[in-house]
């Protein structure tokens, strides 16, 4: 089945574009290149049909997501409009439709902000990404290192080939959120849990840019705090798994201690909630219940260190007074 979508780019002399299940087939004028700098195509935002975009963004649907962002760069639109356009072009939508926007992030900066007039969150294509996202393939040698050092079993369920399941190498921190293709950021997952994890992360696509910004924080307190603020902005609680993900780089194994310090030492209004799903599994979430205080001028790590030093000094003083 074919779906037709007609677009006219006068500045580029592009002929109507016909879409089929195999991808776009675009005829372009030989006298004007889509990469050329024109009023409709600033040099920092290449045309959707340019060789640069085809090389930077893999997949027909992801390139269509870039096209949608590019066409609306002067009038940013909400996620619902992208889903609507995807439906019109491809004749279908699925759970990965929103994720296609995230696949643009490795090559281009996409800002997300709330329209003051409507209060609606919209997406704006800003520029090429200078802080290049790691797109390197996982080499055979690196795969062997992962299996040798981390085991030939799923990091989530413990099953392996002996149990009849296939394993895949997964990025612990998604590449779209700044994760690198390095040993410390890779782990084996069974196909079932790898797909489940991707679906779980794709449910946060609407705040993907904010999560990426949070993950670029200099310390775990900043990263946890900023991701809590991102979830607070859309009125959703933050899963404990996300707390662990953003804190794991420098304080792996103890992210909840950083969360407690954020709450009790730095004074953030954070509440935890527990709820059981129909299968009886308990899910823990955290959320801000008010505005977050400003970060201390000395930085959160220095503030926590000073607090602990003073607390221990008070404890020693109390012990000496008790001995008198």
Give a quick precis of the structure.
With 324 residues, the protein is an alpha+beta fold.
Overview of this structure, please?
The protein has 324 residues and is α+β, with helices and mostly antiparallel strands. The chain has 3 domains: 31-128, Arc Repressor Mutant, subunit A (Orthogonal Bundle), CATH 1.10.10; 140-202, no CATH class; 205-295, Arc Repressor Mutant, subunit A (Orthogonal Bundle). It is built from 11 helices and 10 strands. The chain has helices spanning 51-56, 60-71, 79-90, 99-102, 140-150, 191-202, 208-215, 220-233, 240-247, 255-264, 300-323; strands spanning 3-4, 18-20, 23-25, 108-114, 121-128, 167-171, 186-190, 238-239, 270-276, 282-288. The strands form 4 sheets. A 3-stranded antiparallel sheet has the order 1-2-3, with helices on one face. A 3-stranded antiparallel sheet has the order 8-10-9. The protein is globular, with a radius of gyration of 24 Å. The N and C termini lie far apart (89 Å). The model is unreliable at 1-43 (pLDDT under 50). This is HNH endonuclease. Residues 305-324 have a biased composition (Basic and acidic residues). InterPro entries: HNH (IPR002711), HNH_nuc (IPR003615). Residues 18-49, 290-324 are annotated as: Disordered. GO terms for molecular function: endonuclease activity; nucleic acid binding; zinc ion binding.
What's the total helix number? Answer: 11
Low-confidence stretches: 1-43
* Cα end-to-end separation: 89 Å
CATH topology of the largest domain: Arc Repressor Mutant, subunit A
- Percentage of β-strand residues: 15-25%
* Number of DSSP-assigned strands: 10
Q: Which structural class do the helices and strands define?
A: alpha+beta
Q: How many domains make up the coordinates? A: 3
Shape: globular
What's the CATH class label of the largest domain?
Mainly Alpha
Give average pLDDT, whole number. 78
């Amino acid at each position: 089945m074919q779906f037709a979508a007609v677009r006219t780019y006068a500045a580029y002399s592009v002929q109507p574009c016909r879409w089929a299940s195999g991808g776009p087939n675009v005829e372009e004028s030989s006298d004007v290149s889509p990469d050329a700098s024109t009023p409709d195509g600033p040099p920092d935002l290449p045309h959707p049909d340019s060789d640069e975009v085809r090389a930077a963004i893999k997949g027909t649907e992801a390139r269509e997501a870039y096209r949608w962002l590019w066409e609306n760069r002067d009038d940013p639109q909400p996620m619902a409009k992208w889903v609507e356009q995807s439906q019109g072009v491809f004749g279908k939508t699925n759970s990965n439709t929103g994720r296609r926007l995230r696949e643009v992030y490795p090559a281009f900066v996409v800002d997300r902000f709330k329209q003051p007039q409507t209060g609606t969150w919209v997406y704006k294509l800003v520029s090429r990404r200078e802080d290049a996202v790691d797109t390197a393939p996982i080499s055979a040698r690196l795969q062997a290192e992962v299996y040798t050092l981390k085991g030939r079993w799923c990091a989530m369920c413990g099953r392996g080939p002996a149990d009849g399941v296939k394993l895949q190498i997964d990025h612990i921190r998604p590449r779209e959120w700044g994760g690198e293709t390095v040993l410390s950021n890779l782990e084996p997952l069974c196909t079932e849990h790898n797909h489940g994890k991707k679906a779980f992360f794709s449910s946060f696509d609407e705040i993907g840019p904010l999560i990426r910004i949070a993950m670029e924080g200099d310390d775990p307190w900043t990263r946890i705090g900023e991701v809590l603020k991102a979830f607070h902005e859309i009125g959703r609680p933050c899963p404990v798994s996300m707390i662990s993900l953003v804190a794991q780089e420098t304080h792996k194994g103890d992210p909840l201690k950083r969360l407690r310090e954020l709450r009790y030492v730095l004074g953030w209004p954070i509440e935890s909630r527990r709820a059981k799903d129909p299968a009886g599994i308990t899910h823990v979430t955290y959320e801000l219940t008010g505005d977050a205080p400003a970060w201390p001028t000395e930085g959160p790590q220095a503030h926590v260190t000073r607090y602990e030093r003073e607390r221990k000094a008070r404890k020693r003083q109390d012990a000496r007074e008790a001995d008198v």
